[in-house]
Design goal:
There is one protein chain. It is built from 15 helices and 26 strands. The strands form seven sheets. It has an eight-stranded antiparallel beta sheet. Strands 5-4-15-12-11 form a five-stranded mixed beta sheet. The protein has a three-stranded antiparallel beta sheet with strand order 18-19-20, with no helix packed on it. A hairpin with a 2-residue loop joins β2 and β3 (about 80-85). It is extended and about 100 Å long. It starts with a helix and ends in an 8-residue tail after the last helix.
């Protein structure tokens, strides 16, 4: 039996407990800030960036390089006082920076700093300053390490302001949520058993290992090659050249070098670093595609990695037969992006390793780029000298029974007699009867007295096992838009090649031209133009239907790319120009044309994944968490309102739910509640009175019925007729 009053009382008591818990707990949310799944707690930094920026400019203009930049802020329940000066040891005096086009770039490194915490001995700080915002690492011998990063990596740009320009978190708050499910060693994202074994072999051996190119060593964002000595003579000087290390200490270099101890002259390993295009794209998107800021940020990232490694080597004693101290690394050459011949796109199409769609008819579509060839060659070289596991095996030759005539086979009709319906050829498994008839019978060979097998080509008769004669004029290949039909010539089982139609014959419904018998040419060739793509990157807000229009340009001039609809009247084309066929690539191979001739972007995830990424992406969750933290009182009020609503909803449903308790009133109908809502509320408020009155009314009715029945019985007894005695 249901006891709704007791349930309601328990529910209200539980509600009161939850409200008290929320009142005390929600204000404490501000003390726990989850940055993402890897960082469980962070604190925003707030300090005057304009003041720091002015200090940085003074240090940049200084000739003696001893100007310091002081940064004060409070975070993680303590005060930080950082004293910084320009870092002159991470990058070589002869640093060469090569741009994507191969030209030597003059890059300013004055934003790279190193220093210490004031008042803490043996502490060190390194990082960079950009627009008055410090980004780097603080290491204290007493409290551990803190990381400071720019907020735009974690928050949307509209949320960045003077009070939220940086985030700071402790090394102990960095966690690995996938450590238990990751394959390989859980100590690092890129560490597998094979890589750990290789690293252990290098660390625990004193042998000199041969040079390994960057492609044979697992890496993510950087390619590092050792011992590269390069020189560079700049033909011009940019305005920022006067602030560089080379420009300011050139006259003092000989004196400085001469005063160095002998040990320091032979303890530096030069680095050649090549940045990955993907990290360029990632950082560029966060910096609103500012090329100068992107270069500066990547240079800072390189400096952070190299400086961190230098501190590790500085604090390590390499004592073998002799003592080795102060080993360090120095960046001597930086190369940005891949060389031009390895980039995707262009008139000749994308290379094989390109990640997006290709048309398949461009010259480069069936080729590897020079970069891919170099990377693959390095891996193959490493396998030859047993530096990598050799996964190649010896070829077993042709496989008899796959119905494909391969080298060393006369024919191939299948594995056994169930598959093989060719009476001109033996299957892989030859029966005992055939062996008794022909001792030399073996699988995938023709039978005695046959000239050919239909498995060799369409010009072999399955009835006679002979070549189809020329006089039969049997058509083995039908004509197409770009070639004529072909007939058997009686000399081979294969179909002779068909004659091509005249070049520049229209094909594919007038959207392409025939070239050497194949429909591969662009119709733009008629007007001595080359085909091009209308792209959404160059033309913003372009109609998706427009992207599926055929476009042409003058030679290699991409600026002259125009849709055929723009010059349709000049060449007598139909109004609206020529549209690409459904399924054709569009938007520079970033999509395809659907049946409605609209360019659809290539989506490898699907609509559900897009919806998930939209609702549960990092920025959305962080925005929600920030809103909850800031407006915790609104969350509390909404929680209380929701609990009250649920209580009323449950109580309202109780009066409409039938009960097996005979003392309970009958369930109220929803239609009665809609007509007379006040009766329902009154019943919800006094459920016992209704039941008691109903019970009393029922008792009185029963008692009255009993009296009436007794009275009637008495009357009947008084009027009973008794017979007289005779």
């Amino acid at each position: 039996m249901k006891q709704y009053p007791q349930v309601t009382e328990k529910m209200m008591k539980k509600t009161l407990e939850i409200i008290i818990y929320l009142i005390f707990f929600i204000p404490c949310i501000e003390s726990i800030r989850h940055l993402n799944e890897y960082i469980r707690h962070y604190e925003p930094l707030s300090y005057p960036t304009e003041k720091i920026h002015q200090s940085h400019l003074r240090s940049k203009r200084s000739v003696v390089h001893n100007n310091v930049v002081n940064i004060h802020f409070n975070a993680h329940s303590r005060d930080f006082h950082i004293r910084l000066k320009r870092d002159l040891s991470t990058f070589s005096d002869n640093l060469v920076i090569e741009g994507p086009s191969g030209e030597i770039e003059d890059m300013d490194t004055s934003h790279i700093y190193e220093g210490h915490l004031v008042g803490e001995s043996n502490s060190y700080v390194f990082g960079s300053i950009s627009d008055g915002v410090f980004h780097g690492k603080i290491v204290s011998p007493h409290s551990g390490a803190w990381y400071i990063e720019r907020a735009h990596y974690y928050f949307p740009h509209h949320a960045i302001n003077e009070s939220l320009h940086s985030v700071m978190y402790h090394e102990n708050d960095v966690i690995d949520p996938y450590a238990n499910i990751r394959n390989g060693d859980s100590s690092g994202c890129g560490i597998t058993e094979e890589v750990a074994e290789w690293m252990s072999k290098v660390q625990n051996s004193a042998e000199i290992f041969p040079y390994q190119s960057s492609s044979s060593i697992p890496h993510k964002n950087f390619t590092i090659n050792n011992n590269i000595n390069t020189g560079s003579s700049r033909a011009w000087e940019s305005p920022s050249h006067k602030y560089t290390k080379e420009a300011n200490i050139l006259n003092h270099r000989r004196t400085t070098r001469a005063t160095r101890p002998k040990e320091e002259n032979r303890n530096t390993c030069s680095l050649f670093i090549q940045t990955d295009p993907f990290i360029w794209r990632h950082i560029s998107e966060h910096l609103q595609r500012d090329a100068e800021k992107t270069r500066e940020e990547i240079l800072s990232l390189i400096a952070h990695h190299v400086t961190a490694v230098n501190y590790i080597y500085r604090d390590t004693r390499f004592d073998g037969k002799s003592e080795h101290r102060n080993i360090k690394f120095e960046v001597q050459r930086i190369k940005h992006d891949f060389p031009p011949e390895c980039r995707p796109g262009g008139l000749h199409g994308n290379y094989i390793m390109f990640a997006s769609a290709t048309s398949g008819d461009r010259p480069n579509n069936s080729k590897f780029s020079k970069c891919s060839i170099g990377n693959i060659s390095n891996v193959l070289d490493a396998m030859e000298v047993n530096q990598k596991r050799n996964c190649f095996t010896a070829s077993a030759g042709a496989f008899c029974g796959n119905k494909i005539v391969e080298a060393g086979e006369e024919c191939d009709c299948g594995y056994d007699y169930v598959e093989c319906t060719d009476k001109c050829c033996y299957p892989r498994q030859v029966s005992d009867y055939d062996k008794s008839q022909n001792e030399t019978a073996k699988g995938c060979s023709r039978r005695v007295g046959t000239q050919c097998s239909p498995s060799q080509g369409p010009c072999c008769s399955s009835e006679t096992c002979q070549f189809v004669p020329l006089g039969a004029r049997m058509e083995c290949k039908v004509e197409s838009e770009c070639s004529y039909n072909s007939t058997c010539n009686g000399m081979t089982s294969e179909c002779p090649p068909s004659l091509p139609r005249v070049n520049k014959t229209l094909c594919n419904e007038g959207t392409q031209l025939c070239i050497n018998g194949e429909c591969t040419g662009s119709i733009c060739l008629i007007w001595n133009l080359t085909e091009c793509f209308l792209t959404s990157n160059i033309i913003p807000n372009i109609d998706k239907r427009k992207l599926c229009e055929l476009a042409c340009q003058n030679g290699t001039d991409t600026a002259s790319c125009r849709s055929t609809s723009e010059f349709a009247q000049e060449f007598g084309l139909p109004e609206g120009g020529i549209s690409l066929r459904p399924g054709s690539p569009c938007d520079n191979f970033q999509g395809y044309c659907d049946v409605f001739l609209k360019c659809r972007a290539v989506d490898a995830e699907g609509p559900l994944a897009r919806l998930k990424n939209l609702l549960f992406n990092k920025e959305t969750l962080l925005t929600v968490a920030q809103w909850v933290t800031e407006f915790w009182w609104a969350v509390l009020l909404m929680s209380i309102a929701f609990i009250i609503f649920m209580g009323l909803f449950i109580k309202c449903c109780a009066v409409h739910t039938p009960s097996s308790n005979p003392k309970k009133p009958p369930a109220q109908r929803i239609s009665d509640t809609l007509r007379r809502p006040m009766n329902t509320f009154r019943r919800m408020r006094y459920p016992h009175n209704n039941a008691a009155s109903r019970h009393i009314s029922s008792s009185n009715s029963a008692r009255n019925n009993a009296r009436v029945s007794t009275h009637n019985n008495n009357e009947d007894r008084g009027a009973q007729y008794y017979p007289k005695g005779s």
